[in-house]
Amino acid sequence: MPRRLVLTTGEPAGIGPELSVVAAGWFAGVRGRDAAVPGDAELVLVGDRGLLAQRGALDLAALPGVSVRHVPLREPSEPGRLAVANGRYVLDTLDAAIAMIGQSQAQAIVTAPVHKGVINDAGVAFSGHTEYLQEHAGVDKVVMMLAGGGLRVALATTHLPLRAVPDAITPETLDRVLRILDADLRSRFGLAAPRIAVCGLNPHAGEGGHLGHEEIDVIAPAIGRARAAGIDAHGPLPADTLFVPSHVAQYDAALAMFHDQGLPVLKHASFGHGVNITLGLPYVRTSVDHGTALDLAGTGKADPGSLQEAILTALQMTRAGDAGAGVPA
């Protein structure tokens, strides 16, 4: 079977459709010429065929290895102008991609950015791609990880107010996150014995209890249980010194306790070329590290770098079981 990726083209009023067309042209151009994009690789764009033709200057039908799974808009779309009815259209594209995965027609989903607000305005409670895919896959826990700039940073908690973070870092949460992170670094990234650095929650990892007890009471015991289960986890480590290049280079991934503990460092190192990865799903899912950028839609100025990296990472992750597979970072 060809190595097939499904690319959902995102919010129609945003930059997703035009970036998807640009990425398709790049994909066809390097397919079979670059070892990262083998000749048997295929890319299926999921979206409204007319919209993609309108937003891109390429004839998608003429691109080798590229096809379109047509999903009709709910109403016409203009760059930069959200339409509530098209919130349902965005979910239609996700449902089509999920169906292709379920029917073994593809091995990975790559997602262009969506606008959560317009989907909620359409009457659908939607907190994000990750949660939507998790619910439809029937898994009880997934892990958000970003990769780029030579770093992999996973999150123990994601989009929470800071005051809610300590209560969300429970023994059960850390146990599950460490298991998923270790398992997917092995199975999706081809790492035989991944080394994981675990951040503390508090400054200086709690300073021996003087700046908080979460490290002593919750995080260190979770690391101990993980090590007893064969997971090579280390910490808790102070986040301000962990990300010193010579230190973080000793590990295959870092586990941050909250969103803005680890991601500013990664985005500084990789902005515009980072990849958002969902671990714990029964298939590969990658995405861009940016939003819909309504102000750039239709201008041709949006940078396709992150979407191209998301495609490359998805290909590498689907090859992890092959001998000699590359390891995205």
Automatic annotation (TrEMBL):
Catalyzes the NAD(P)-dependent oxidation of 4-(phosphooxy)-L-threonine (HTP) into 2-amino-3-oxo-4-(phosphooxy)butyric acid which spontaneously decarboxylates to form 3-amino-2-oxopropyl phosphate (AHAP). The keyword DNA-binding does not apply. Binds 1 divalent metal cation per subunit. Can use ions such as Zn(2+), Mg(2+) or Co(2+). Belongs to the PdxA family. GO terms for molecular function: 4-hydroxythreonine-4-phosphate dehydrogenase activity; cobalt ion binding; magnesium ion binding; NAD binding; zinc ion binding. The active site is located at the dimer interface. It is found in: Cytoplasm. GO terms for biological process: pyridoxal phosphate biosynthetic process; pyridoxine biosynthetic process. It catalyses: 4-(phosphooxy)-L-threonine + NAD(+) = 3-amino-2-oxopropyl phosphate + CO2 + NADH. Pfam families: PdxA. It is an enzyme of class 1 (oxidoreductase). GO terms for cellular component: cytoplasm. This is 4-hydroxythreonine-4-phosphate dehydrogenase. A divalent metal cation binds at H159, H204, H259. Its EC number is 1.1.1.262. Substrate binds at H129, T130, K267, N276, R285. Its cofactor is Zn(2+); Mg(2+); Co(2+). Homodimer. Keywords: Cobalt, Cytoplasm, Magnesium, Metal-binding, NAD, NADP, Oxidoreductase, Pyridoxine biosynthesis, Zinc. Pathway: Cofactor biosynthesis; pyridoxine 5'-phosphate biosynthesis; pyridoxine 5'-phosphate from D-erythrose 4-phosphate: step 4/5. HAMAP family: PdxA.
